[in-house]
Design goal:
The protein is built from 7 helices and 7 strands. The protein is α/β, with parallel strands linked by helices and 220 residues long. The protein has 2 domains: 1-33; 37-210, Vaccinia Virus protein VP39 (Rossmann fold), CATH 3.40.50. The relative contact order is 0.13.
Amino acid sequence: MSSRGAMSRSKSSKRWLREHFSDPHVKRSREEGYRSRASFKLREINKRDRIIRPGMTVVDLGAAPGGWSQVAAERSDPNGRVIAVDLLPMAPIPGVEFIQGDFSDQAVLDHVLNRLAGAGADLVISDMAPNMSGVKGIDQPRAMALAELALDLAARVLAPGGGLLVKVFQGAGCEEFRASLKAEFATVKTRKPEASRARSNEMYLLASGFRGQNRKFAAP
């Protein structure tokens, strides 16, 4: 890396740290016991759309460190279930069943299906994002690939009428992905919570009313 590139990366890192520690949502997450500021994104979307209700079964993809799982467990209580999946380890959360592994692997998918025991999930949520390189031509395809994987799993585990909340980044492939959602769900809405950083091009697609053509509840 050139000295100019290193200097640019250093300036970017320092700016991110300043923003992070001055971020009111970071402060609130610490005060309220959430593991990440991302919890407030899901809380805001849920307040508007009531996607998580008591007794629901929720599958959280790319769950670590657990901010979304915490919110899902709170809002689905009593009698709800949250099944969280991530490559990385995650400290236990009351009311959350954690599976460590790559959910695109058949063995991990089978584990999720076995946990569901044929019942199907009510909601799949995904706040996944790739490790950003800063090169849009690399980062955008990676981000869309993660969204496609989330949709594929949702089509396998959702009960009819279920929903999917998935993070995407505005750019190449986004409209094509939206069209894929419309083919599987009755409605698709766009959400940009206030807790998202203003300079971020992230947004969330909320798909509701899964039509259920691709149901595969039983593990092979």
